[in-house]
Structures are given as structure tokens and as C-alpha cells.
Amino acid sequence: NTCFTGIIYRMLSTLEGIHPDPEIGFTPPRQILLPGAQNEARKFMLDRLKNKKNNKEIFKAWYDVQNGYEDDESQKIVDDFISEVSIPLMRKLLSITSQYSEQIVLTLMKNISSIKLNKLQCCELVQHMRNKLQEHGLGDQESLLENIGKKVFLELLNRDLLETDFSLKDSSLDGAKRIANKIIIGEVEKFRSEAAEKAREVNSIEVQVDVTLRGLSTLPREKKCCIAYSRLSGQYEGDEREIMENILLKKLEITKKEMNKMLEENDIRKLKLALDDACKKSGKNMEEMIKEVEEVVSSRFSREVSVSNIATESAHL
Length: 317
Known about the structure:
By secondary structure, the protein is an all-alpha fold. It is built from 14 helices and no strands. The chain folds into 4 domains: 113 residues, no CATH class; 73 residues, no CATH class; 60 residues, no CATH class; 52 residues, no CATH class.
């Protein structure tokens, strides 16, 4: 197993460094990056899928889970397959002749469900899809091409147009292109609709940022940034907040790092004032108050501001 392999590796590495006997030698595995191990795992899992009667079901569930469409049944199908292949896959990747370190293998196994199994083997078909996207002015949208490729793969699999190794049958290229064309039309329409919606969303957020900054136009940039961020961050979450932050950075002509520093210093000043007030009311000194605050400091401060930062800044303010 992984632990045993690691122990043997370290023992042999030690022997190599201190033992004079030329017959005792060990060549550690050369550095192989994670993508190499992922490709090896993908080949292994595809080989296992060749002879499984429910490989179509597994591919569909795998696609759904990767794209956030999963339900409990899809997740169970994926989990069962991963459980089935995990041990033999690890044995293969950690075998004596393997080139992969145990750290690479462990990283791979933690994220094994992210490996892309639904991959078209036919270069001519992939190029056909790329050309079609270029006709729509979307030739540079690699993620769109990848998503279309997965859907085409699943449709070809469902129609029995793939060989047992999941490559395209020789006589199926024309039919595969027609299937791809139909899927491309739907995906391009969906892509443009989502892009238009996002553009409207960005415009709406930009208007709100402009209105907020207009009311703070007389303030120095640092105060303008802190007040605007405080007002706007409560209105947006997730992707919308990220859009808002990027617009704010652009309007203020500052970097993300500069904004974080401004917000941090502003938070420290606010906490210093709160601590001073609390000290006056409680009769405690600053060190006692900081010790109490340490246990309840907000998640915002835990990002970059330690209690030592607060104490240092407090001494200067």
C-alpha cells in the first residue's frame, strides 16, 4: 500500500547514500507531473470500462457529476466505479516500475473524479467542431469546445457509433459530424444567451459602482475604496461580488493587493477604536482586551490580520 511503498522508498534512498556495496543501488523515480499521472489513470479506467455492460451509464453519471448536474443516483454510480478501480489503479501507479511518487498518486486519488473520461479520440471530428465554432466567431472558446465534445461523445456512445475502445467507428464519421452540428447549434445559442445575460448583469453592477463612487468623489482614494467596498459588498455574493470588485478596482485604478491592504488597515483602525472604547468602559488594559478579542475575531480578519498585527498597529495609532 501507499504507506509501505513510502517506507521502502525512504529505506532504499538511505542505503543508496551510505552503503558502499555497488550491488545495492536504487534509482528514485524521476519527477513526473500530475497531468502525466492523470493520463495514466484515464487510460486505466477506460480499459476497465471496455468490458462493463453499464459503461454508458457510468459515462453519463461521470459527465453529470463533473458538470454539477449530479443527483444521488449519479453520484452513487461514480462512487461505486471509483471504489472498484481505486485499489488496482494505486497498485499500478505505485508498482516497482512506476515513475510516480506517492505524493503525486495521493493527490491524484483525492481528485480522481475530476479526470475527464468523455474525450473524443477522433482528431478529424474534433477539428470539424473547432471549424464550426470558428464559423460562429467562437473559435477561441476552448471550454465551449470541450463541453460540446463531451456531449458529442455521450451521444455517439448512446448510438453505438464507438468501438469498444471508445474510438469512432470508421464508417461513422459523417453521422458523427451531423450529430456534432446539431449539438453545436444548441450550445452556441445557449452560450450567447448566457453571455448576453452576464453582460447585462455587469452593466447593472457597474452602474451601481458608479453611483456609489460619485457620492464619494471628494474623499481621498483610500477612504473612497473602503466606504464603497463596505456599501457594495453587502449587496452582492459569489460571482456578482467578484464582478463588483473587479469593476471597483478598475474605477479606482488600483490592484487587488492594494485594495486588500487598504481594507485591512481600515479594519485595524476600526478595531482599535472599538478596543479603546471597550477598555474605557471595562477598565481593562489593551492586552487583556486583545486576548478576549482573539477568540471572537471575525472571518474577515482571519484572512490576513493576526492579533499581533492589531497590537502593532494599535501601538502606532
